[in-house]
């Protein structure tokens, strides 16, 4: 089985270690992983801003880059959703093909590889899981990341706001910063006693970690890919 990893812009710039951990994790599970170097932005920012022609160009480029990939796996729910649900409408020729081969990382591990337990490296740790809006509401990824964390021995602590938007939303946080900040603060105010917060979406983690630091918080924020690799205990 061969996977082509699409690391995404946020992954490349802010979560390079998590992207490397995703490769380590997949290889540990017996998957051959490659990294097409011509990959670039998936086009989501342009698409959300209404620049459809630019988004179409990025979609066509991405489809060409990953044309030979058996599976396209992303450590990001929002970008995986862009490929799966919006590329068919942006690139009639190859959009449906890449959409059908696209998976968010935890979704791929559970649904394609059939793996639910990775190791006991997180035993005794209490983590809160933030469900990113795109992964939860558009991809339907809810049980997979939580189940994998528990399969690594972690206690996933109930959190009343775990399915509420963090306020990042890409352009939303830039255009309505006051509202965005209030949404992040609400989530942080509701956090239970935990060792840290994890999510499949880097943008959400950047939003919450930044607000936590601004407020003098000491919570640990870690990408799901890195936490799962720690859970393997390799």
What can you tell me about this protein's structure?
- By secondary structure, the chain is α/β, with parallel strands linked by helices.
- It folds into two domains: 2-112, Rossmann fold (3-Layer(aba) Sandwich), CATH 3.40.50; 126-232.
- It has helices spanning 9-14, 16-28, 44-48, 52-65, 77-90, 95-100, 105-112, 133-139, 143-151, 171-175, 177-189, 202-214, 224-232; strands spanning 2-5, 32-34, 71-74, 102-104, 126-130, 155-156, 196-199, 220-223.
- It has a four-stranded parallel β-sheet, sandwiched between helices.
- Helix 9 runs parallel beside helix 13 (224-232) and helix 11 packs across helix 12 (202-214).
Summarize this structure as a short list of keywords or feature phrases.
234 residues, alpha/beta, 8 strands, globular, 13 helices, 4-stranded parallel β-sheet, 2 domains, Rossmann fold
Concise structural overview:
With 234 residues, this protein is α/β, with parallel strands linked by helices.
Helix content: 40-55%
Mean pLDDT: 96
Number of domains: 2
SSE arrangement, N to C: EHHEHHEHHEHEHHEHHEHEH
Low-confidence blocks of residues:
none
Determine the structural class based on helices, strands and strand pairing: alpha/beta
Enumerate how many helices there are, as a single number: 13
In total, how many beta strands? Answer: 8
Oligomer: single chain
What is the CATH architecture annotation of the largest domain?
Answer: 3-Layer(aba) Sandwich
Distance between the termini: 21 Å
Q: Roughly how many Å is the radius of gyration?
A: 17 Å
In terms of DSSP E residues, the strand content is 5-15%
Q: Could you give a short account of the major beta sheet?
A: 4 strands, parallel
């Amino acid at each position: 089985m061969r996977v082509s990893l699409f690391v995404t812009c946020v992954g490349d710039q802010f979560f390079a270690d998590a992207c490397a951990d995703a490769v380590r994790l997949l290889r540990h599970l017996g998957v051959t992983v490659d990294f097409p170097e011509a990959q670039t932005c998936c086009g989501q920012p342009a698409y959300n801003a209404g620049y459809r022609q630019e988004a179409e160009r990025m979609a066509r480029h991405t489809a060409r880059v990953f044309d030979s990939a058996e599976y396209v796996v992303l450590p990001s729910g929002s970008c995986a959703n862009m490929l799966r649900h919006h590329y068919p409408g942006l690139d009639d020729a190859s959009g449906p093909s890449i959409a059908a081969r696209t998976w968010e990382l935890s979704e791929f591990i559970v649904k394609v590889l059939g793996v639910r337990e990775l190791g006991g490296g997180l035993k005794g740790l209490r983590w809160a899981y933030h469900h990113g809006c795109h992964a939860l509401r558009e991809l339907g990824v809810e049980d997979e990341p939580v189940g994998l964390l528990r399969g690594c021995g972690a206690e996933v602590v109930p959190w009343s706001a775990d399915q509420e938007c963090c306020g990042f939303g890409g352009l939303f946080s830039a255009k309505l910063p006051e509202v965005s900040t209030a949404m992040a603060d609400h989530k942080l105010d509701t956090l239970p006693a935990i060792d840290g917060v994890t999510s499949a979406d880097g943008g959400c983690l950047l939003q919450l970690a930044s607000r936590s630091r601004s407020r003098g918080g000491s919570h640990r924020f870690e990408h799901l890919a890195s936490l799962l690799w720690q859970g393997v205990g390799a």
